[in-house]
Input
Amino acid sequence: MNWYYVTGGQQAGPVDDAQMDGLVHAGQVRPETLVWHEGMPNWLPYGQVKPAPQSPAPQSSVGTPPLAAPGLIAPATGPNEVVCAECGKVFPIENTIQLGGSRICAVCKPLFMQRIHEGAIRQAPHAPGTLTEAELLAEDYEVDIGGCFQRGWEAFKADPGTFIGVSLLVYLAIFAVNVIPYLSMILAILFMGPLTAGLWIFNLKKIRGQPTSIGDGFSGFGPKFWQYFLVHLIRTLIASAVLIVVIIGLVIAAVATGAFNHGFRNGDFPPALIVMVVVGGLAAWAAMVYFQVCWLFALPLAADKGLEFWPALQLSRRIVMKHWWMTFWLTFVAGMLAFAGMLACFVGVFVTGPIAFAMLAAHYDRVFGRLASQPS
Output
């Protein structure tokens, strides 16, 4: 039997029965440690799964309703009622939200989130790969940039050679498809999605402590090739459409201001046209950034969870929109980290680039890792 357990607020495992017994004897798994194995409907304290005779059950305070254990759904008093894990009051289930498996009323949500942020409460994850899309959308999450960097750095530090080698090979392939004369535009559209999907697969395996190989970096060239291609194609078409609309608008503005008849000949551009060019350029940049951040996790959702291209794009957008600005800052910090490596005679990018990608993979795993995979 494979066991999973929570340590330091993070999911660990799987471990077999003998390894779990060793963790118990070593004191790493205690009666209050949340655990899960196949067949359990939810996470439970280890002491409830395998009760210890010498450990008496804790008594609730007199007159105080018992609160739900962190990460566990409180017992309902009616068929459509639940107990708020923060205040202990009973509410209709539709008047509560689910956070990390706990049901919280709307009044308690700000306090509950603040206590999580301060470390007073640790959310326990659902069983691996059991969350439905609706359950995932009902939950909230935090964009922990520092935690993502730490997890990415730890993954890189554990096996820097493979990280650098696989990343270098994939980036060389990406460079190649973008510089081949006459064919670069077609090859880039065709292969960028599968190549990037391979990087996601490799980084997610590293983040999760799973075995990896060089082939993982090119695993996008498989049965899901066309799904990865379509994800990248949609993103490219949207970016192209934004640029085309801006260019058309600027041409119309140039005609309206008489620039074609006077300004372009004399080298004197009307101030109004200059303002329109600046505003149009900023608007185009903002629109492209917006869509790129919204669809940041579409490729890993297709690669890791088996979603088709359009559901992957939609789910990525819906989840990111909960915290769009923080997700943008995560991508900005990761981008600056990768760029910093270029300043060290370009050599540093072989270290900072993989760490930056691993940061994004760490955030994806934290937010989407519990989502159930789609059947092949």
About this structure: The CA atoms of residues 75 and 374 lie 30 Å apart. Strands lie at 3-7, 10-15, 34-37, 44-45, 81-83, 90-92, 96-99, 102-105.
